[in-house]
Amino acid sequence: MSSVNKVILVGHLGKDPELRYLEGNVSVASFPLATSETFNKDGKKVEQTEWHNIVMWRGLADVAAKYLTKGRLVYIEGKLRTRSYEDKEGVRRYTTEIVAESFNILGRRSDFENTNNSNSSNNNTTNQAQEQSVDFTENDTDDGLPF
User: Fold this and answer.
1) Which is it for the CA torsion 83, 100, 61, 68, positive or negative?
2) Three-state SS across the chain?
3) What is the largest CA-CA distance in the chain?
4) Considering the entire predicted model, what is its pTM?
5) CA nearest neighbour of 75 among 36, 109, 103
6) Does a structural domain hold residue 132?
7) For burial by CB atoms within 10 Å, which of 1, 30, 86, 88 has the most?
8) Domain enclosing residue 35, as ranges
């Protein structure tokens, strides 16, 4: 039987993506993503937040750096990867990351107008009432938002 390594997260960016270029001009973006769940404990609502390290490569990294900002709500699909490295003191450390394969920007259409002003002639009242999802995959290289 084959195995499955699939992660689906919906959360808010903890900071703007950090875009770096590696050897061969390969781009990589990384950022923390917060997911929260609420549950009842002793009759009181308690919110628990989990932080995830997100990594995006190549075209997806470029799109993320252009459109994602701190606080933005996103849907991310990817896979778990654990890697090791040596810190400055020579101690072997391990980190677990989500390598994103695609993402959707979630929110109201008006949320996107700050990023892309080409839709500014639309009626703002209508835009604020409409929910919007913008989908990006590793193969996307188009600069425009697909709505």
Assistant:
1) negative
2) CCCCCCEEEEEEECCCCEEEEEHHHEEEEEEEEEEEEEEEECCEEEEEEEEEEEEEEHHHHHHHHHHCCCCCEEEEEEEEEEEEEECCCCCEEEEEEEEEEEEEEEEEHHHHHCCCHHHCCCCHHHHHHCEEEEEEECCCCCCCCCC
3) 58
4) 0.75
5) 103
6) no
7) 30
8) 7-107
**Are residues 111 and 129 in contact, defined by beta-carbon separation less than 8 angstroms?**
no
25 domain residue, yes or no: yes
pLDDT of residue 114: 55
Q: How many independent structural domains does the chain possess?
A: 1
The amino acid present at 19, given as its one-letter code, is L
Tokens of 5: 């390594």
Q: CATH code at 93?
A: 2.40.50.140
- Is 14 part of a structural domain of the chain? yes
pLDDT digits (tens, 9 = 90+) for 53-110: 999 999 999 999 999 999 999 999 999 999 999 999 999 999 999 999 999 999 876 6
Give 2-13 pLDDT, tens digit per residue.
Answer: 999 999 999 999
> Token pair of 108, please?
């109201």
Residues 21-56 pLDDT 10s: 999 999 999 999 999 999 998 989 999 999 999 999
